[in-house]
Amino acid sequence: MSAAILFEFPQGWLFAFPLAAALAFAVWRQRRRGLAISQIGSLAALRGIALLVLVFLVARPIWMTRESAAAATRPVMVLMDRSESMSLEEHDATRYQQGLGFLRERLLPALHAASLPVQAMLFDQGVEPADGAKLSSVTPNGKRTNLGGAISQALGSAGQPPLAVIALTDGIVNEGADNSRALTALVDARVPFIGVGFGSDQGVRTLSLREIEAPSTVSTKTAFSIAAQLEMINTEEMPGFELLLFRDGQMHQKRSVIPGKGSRTWLESFPVTEDKQGVHNYAVQLLPPNVPGLKCVNLLANTSVRVSDERELRVLYIQGALTWDYKFVSLALRKDQTIKLTGLTRTSKQSVFRQNVESAGELMNGFPTSLEELAPFRVVVLSNLRAADLTPAQQEVLARFCGELGGGVLMIGGPATFDGSWQSSRLEQLLPVVFSPNRGVQGLDRPFRLQLTEDALQHPVFQIADGRAMQEAWAQLPTFTQYGRVDAAKPGAQVWAVHQTDEGPQGHRILMASQRYGAGLSAVVCIQNFWRWRLARDSEPQQFDRFWRQLFRFLSEVGRQDVSIHLADQELHPQMDVQVVLEKQPNPKSVTDNNRKFFVRVEDGQKKVLYDQTVELETSRPVDFRFRAERADIYTVTVSDGMKVPVATRPFEIRDINVEFQDTARNMETLQQWASISDGLAVKVEDCRDAADLVAQIKAKIEKVRHGKNMHRPAGVNGWLLTLVLGCLVSEWLLRKRWGMA
Fold first, then answer.
1. HSE on the CB side for 284, CA within 13 Å?
2. Which of the pair, 423 or 195, is modelled with greater confidence?
3. What's CA 398's distance to the chain center, in Å?
4. N or C: which end of the chain has fewer CB within 10 A?
5. d(CA 435, CA 420)
6. 592, 625 in Cβ contact below 8 A?
7. CA–CA separation, 645 and 599 (whole Å)
8. What is the tally of helices (H) and strands (E) in the chain?
């Protein structure tokens, strides 16, 4: 290393001239006083040294260091990616084979020709040195890719950092714990990073069973669904395959799937009904088609469902005016003793009509204005309401009821309800559709039929007839004449039914839809006088009744729990500490509930207790805890009250998913980011036709870093200069005292 001192503020040296003049004037005065020349010289020298140091500091000196030519003997470090994504075969060779061939046949000869020594290392989630034999014999099967850890290891593996770090990889990085450390090491060592990307930008064809969705708790003899979320990427025409549903280890149902083509994510549902109480384990297995080159990330997923007798389900039905809807919904629920319907109808601006309330004071002031007033209900229906009927505060309470308490909100009505007056309101944020800016639609008196989507035909809510095709049963519904127009469904919403002919901005007008909102569900039925279905000549009233019972149970999630259980971690995998968040919900029966003591237990699939503690929970004050999940399994969190009675339960599955195949496309963006922070390069392998040209660029980058970027370090502020200034001042004071000078 060579070094030199430069000054960031060289103009500071100009202060030396007036200071020198002042020093000369002081010498002249001392000469007139008759001091000896030796005395005057000693004092002037001490003052001059101190003033010179001060001027030196004012000029802000810095050390400028440059790397010596001898440092060129350091090697170039080559990092070879051996993670499992490098085993993907493209153009009759795996990515690892392509990388190894590029290294041996092109890169190494070019580096040796440029007189650059080379050291190699293999990396996946770990790093190890490698020679030629090791590189040839390795199998790319690493479960994770930690490029940051490999860079950090390469920089710290020897006494001096390498001249450059060259990574031969597809850029698929799924472990970032060491990124910060590697970033700091790259900047401090001034080593350029060179990334060479292998693989295709589109990736390979993949089919995956991502997860299965099911309610944690259901009641006996109630239909629910086990939904498998499937993902297909980079496929053109995928042949059909089968899904198997297992119940407690036994094959329960089989379903054939025709996936079509293109990249997409969709749900395939199995309708299930349980007659007896208990906990059942459900597993969905994917049987992939025989397609060359197809990669399957995951083929099996599990969940468990607790079946128990349902508690009372209360529904609050709010109307803007007296209509027939409430009457016929009441008739639909008449034979179901577990669903209780409470009505609240606005009869004028100052009065409301209450039906089926539990106490004389319940809902006395009309629509609830606090979360505690809504807590006893599990579903709220808004029927034929206008935007002016709900204040912003009341809409906020509805949003909290759905998002925080896990309640269901259903809006039903026609053109007078679904209009532009709801736009940008809190209620619109809650619902699954985007309202049309038009203020209602006039003249919609042409008969139309309800057209169910494929998702609806497979969903338990719409299973209204036994032993018949659902499409046939729904086709026999009567025609309707009025409906509310909405523009589109929100991202993530499920569309259940559409208009047969009316086209909106994004296809057929939506008539039924639902979506998750926080912990709850919201839905819309955009049909005026939906009750006409029950009175139609050819309709079957029991189908109308069954639909409403199933819809209310769906919106209530078949049993809201007194304590909500959330997982703080988005990505779960074996051998991790899982963070669980518990939050007590308001007690519907008592706003002043003082029960704070709860028991929390975590069990694995073999009923082994992993966590068993007592916690104190207060309403809307979350408490979290952690437990260790060592292996892939189904884990169940159960919260019990002070009497050891379970009040909430949540099963969840931790799977050992192969994250290397979740995204198989080459990721050049990652390599470009590492290159940009180190003044390096990121290139695709197909752009490196001449390895000598690539090595020339690498060598230029090395030279630029070594000679173009100098290290700046303050040179003036240190203990030696401070000691020198103090020594001069103290010496002058001692001399003046010795010579008897004032």
1. 28
2. 195
3. 26
4. C
5. 6
6. no
7. 9
8. 18, 38
In the chain, the amino acid numbered 577 is: D
Which one, of 429, 224, 209, lies nearest residue 302 by Cα?
209
**Distance between first and last Cα of the chain:** 51
Domain termination site, one of 520, 550, 580: 550
How far is CA 198 from each of CA 73, 78, 297, rounded to the nearest angstrom?
Answer: 29, 15, 21
| Alpha carbons 534 and 531: distance in angstroms, whole number | 6
Is 199 within a domain? no
Do 617 and 681 have their domain in common?
no
**Of the ranges 184-188, 267-271, 681-685, 713-717, which is most confident?**
681-685
Q: What is the mean pLDDT of residues 401-420?
A: 85
Tell whether 195 is covered by a domain.
no
Task: Name 391's Cβ contacts closer than 8 Å, sequence gap at least 6.
Answer: none
Q: What's the pLDDT score for residue 439?
A: 54
Residue for token pair 């054939």: 256
Of 595, 637, 636, 601, nearest in space to 617 by CA: 595
Distance CA 78, CA 82 (A): 13
Please state, in angstroms and as integers, the Cα–Cα distance from residue 662 to each residue in 144, 196, 204, 295, 368, following that order.
11, 21, 10, 10, 47
Rounded distance, CA 401 to CA 654, Å?
30
Rounded to an integer, what distance in angstroms lies between the CA atom of residue 148 and that of residue 180? Answer: 8
| Contact (Cβ atoms closer than 8 angstroms) between residue 436 and residue 524 | no
With a cut of 90, say whether residue 82 has pLDDT above it. Answer: yes
Same domain for 526 and 577, yes or no, is no
Q: Pick from 497, 523, 550: which residue ends a domain?
A: 550
Quote the Cα angle for 701-706-708, to 5°. Answer: 80
Residue 211 near residue 284 (C-beta atoms within 8 A): no
Give phi and psi for 208, each to the nearest 5: -145, 140
d(CA 394, CA 705): 64
Of the candidate ranges 67-71, 250-254, 695-699, the one whose mean pLDDT is the lowest = 67-71
- How buried is 548 (Cβ within 10 angstroms: 0-12 exposed, 13-18 middle, 19+ buried)? buried
221 shares a domain with 134: no
CA distance 640 to 648: 7
Strand partners, 247: 250, 282
How long is the chain? 742
d(CA 445, CA 480): 8
Number of folded domains that form the chain: 5
For residue 72, the 8-state DSSP code is G
147-156 vs 179-189: helix crossing angle, rounded to 10: 40
Q: To which residue do tokens 């309401």 refer? A: 385
The C-alpha angle 285, 288, 292, rounded to 5 degrees, equals 160
pTM, 2 dp: 0.59
Tokens of 324: 């027939």
Domain span holding position 732: 2-66+712-738
Please, which residues have CB within 8 angstroms of residue 288's CB and are 6 or more apart in sequence? Answer: 207, 241, 294, 296, 299
- Distance CA(435)–CA(451), nearest Å, equals 20
Residues in CB range of 355: below 8 A, 6 or more apart = 326, 342, 343, 344, 345
